[in-house]
Amino acid sequence: MLDVAQFAKDQTVAFGAGIRNEIATHAERAGAERVLVVTTPHQADLGQALADALGPRAVGLSATAAMHTPVDISEAAAEELRRLQADSVLAAGGGSTVGLGKALALRTSVQQIVLPTTYAGSECTPILGQTEDGVKTTMKDPRLLPGTVLYDPELVATLPVAMTVTSALNAMAHAVEALYAQDRSPESDQLAMLGLEAFRQALPAVMADPSDLAAREATQRGAWACGTVLGRVGMALHHKLCHTLGGSFDLPHAETHAIILPHAMAYNAAAVPDLLAPVAALFEGADAAQAVWSFARDLGAPSALKDLGVTETDLDHAADIATRNAYWNPREITREGLRALLDRAWRGAAPAA
Ligand code: NAD
């Protein structure tokens, strides 16, 4: 089992089925006296249950989190937080909720406690993406890293099966890109492989029985490793493409990652096959991209951008935007290469270099 204590820096991390019911104890340990609970409208019941479990430490609930952390929502929640004189925020949810918690920490310096309910991994990074007037900007600041993260496998056990797979592939994408990151290190390589191994082993068990809490906890350890490595090294083509597609066509985050990952891997494997060879070995294929593509297919992951509502003419626009601003990638980015990649991802074809 992946031992996170070996790698955790600047964070208190704990795992356990039902750990959410001990939230008052963890809040006390963290010195949280006045806690604002945040979540999405969809997860308001979970937010209320946590506020109840916190007892007098809970001063309010804001179930307003939304995808891509819109600035107007963060400003309104920050005003509420100041009015309530909260000293801490408890974010219970996926990347959107964790984003709101970080946005509040940025504006008010409150400490963050997180109960993740997806595998996105934002709880392990000092990164925040915010959206204003349709433009998403990303920042990195050590103060954004949540201080306490509590992984309760019962909370991911409620993830619908389809979202379980896409969210897991979203996490795995962080690890894959870490393996060829320009600033990678032996430790980041180790973290990335531990994250991928956790999903490789536990995800099929979760799909066979979504209520298998031991397998769910193993996937959460994988999400922790993948999220942590995302915070420590730079990402490349895959994340840039998903960012472009998500921002331009308002696509769902995890599904987009799930579809693009094997194609981005194939593109980059042509330049750095040795760096992706451990992934091929782990997923038992001659080729890393094909092996991950097969793994995703076997689990029923979505495979075609056209099924998300992207039209064929959108692909030219996406290729233009994704080649406009230079960014580091192990293989030179060409518009022609990206357009071909997007075409395969749009049709749901197998990945190719
Ligand atoms: P999400 O948080 O947007 O959740 C999607 C939907 O699923 C929401 O309605 C949510 O309420 C619901 N949901 C979440 N967990 C559930 C559960 N266990 N059971 C039932 N429903 C559940 O999705 P996400 O993919 O976790 O996060 C995506 C966002 O996170 C994007 O905005 C992305 O940019 C951001 N992100 C940021 C970082 C970072 O380091 N800053 C990392 C990864 C993702």
Structural write-up:
With 353 residues, this protein is of the alpha/beta class. It is 53% helix and 12% strand. The chain has 14 helices and eight strands. The strands form two sheets. It has a six-stranded parallel sheet with strand order 1-8-5-4-2-3, sandwiched between helices. The chain has a two-stranded antiparallel sheet with strand order 6-7. Strand 2 (35-38), helix 2 (44-54) and strand 3 form a beta-alpha-beta unit. The structure holds nicotinamide-adenine-dinucleotide. Nicotinamide-adenine-dinucleotide is lined by residues 40, 42-43, 67-68, 93-97, 99, 117-118, 120-122, 125, 127-129, 155-156, 158-159, 167, 170, 230, 253-254.
Features:
globular; 14 helices; two-stranded antiparallel sheet; alpha/beta; binds nicotinamide-adenine-dinucleotide; 8 strands; 353 residues; 12% strand
Ions and ligands: nicotinamide-adenine-dinucleotide
Order of helices and strands: EHEHEHEHEEEEHHHHHHHHHH
In the sheet with the most strands, the strands line up as 1-8-5-4-2-3
Mean pLDDT: 96
Query: Which percent range fits the helix content?
Result: 40-55%
Specify Rg, calculated over alpha carbons. 19 Å
Major β-sheet profile: 6 strands, parallel
Number of helices: 14
So what's the overall shape? globular
* Total E-strand runs: 8
Give the end-to-end Cα distance, rounded to a whole number of Å: 34 Å
Give the helix/strand class: alpha/beta
Strand content: 5-15%
- Residue windows where pLDDT falls under 50 for at least 5 positions: none
